[in-house]
Write a structure and sequence with these properties.
Elements (H helix, E strand, L loop, with lengths): L3 E4 H30 L8 H26 E4 L14 E6 L5 E7 L10 E3 L3 H6 L7 E6 L2 E11 L2
Parallel strand pairs: 1-2, 4-5
Antiparallel strand pairs: 3-4, 3-7, 6-7
Helix pairs in contact: 1-2
Amino acid sequence: MEKVPITARGFQQLEEELRHRQQVERQRIIAAIAEARALGDLSENAEYHAAKEAQSHNEGRVMELESLIARAEVIDVSKLSGDSIKFGATVTLIDEDTEEEKVYQIVGEPEADIHSGRLSIGSPLGRALIGKAVGDTVEVATPGGGKSYEVVEVAFR
């Protein structure tokens, strides 16, 4: 069973989502199925089929979350330090084409959300950043073409 690196905050979010899906969503879907059953003929009952589909989706996500939590290797970022980029680092980059500053935290796949500044360690940019330090330039091939970034800060918080 392969371990999945994750920050303590990411682990807590997975546990909260699991708890919500098991305790809130399950009950809501069960009620929706019961309500749809009361409407009669199930073969032509769109509400029933939609509720069953929602139940299937929810249970699939519950199984996925349970697996991720079981395989999680929680890493306390506050105990990390150093000058080079590694898992958990918060990195400030300057896009060498646009001079735009970007700040990302290198996190595990389950908690990655580029719009929130959480970059997966397995992404092309995440992989390219590992081992780099302040002053280094990082070249990354993206679907829109090559990008070049300069590392201006590495922090662990």
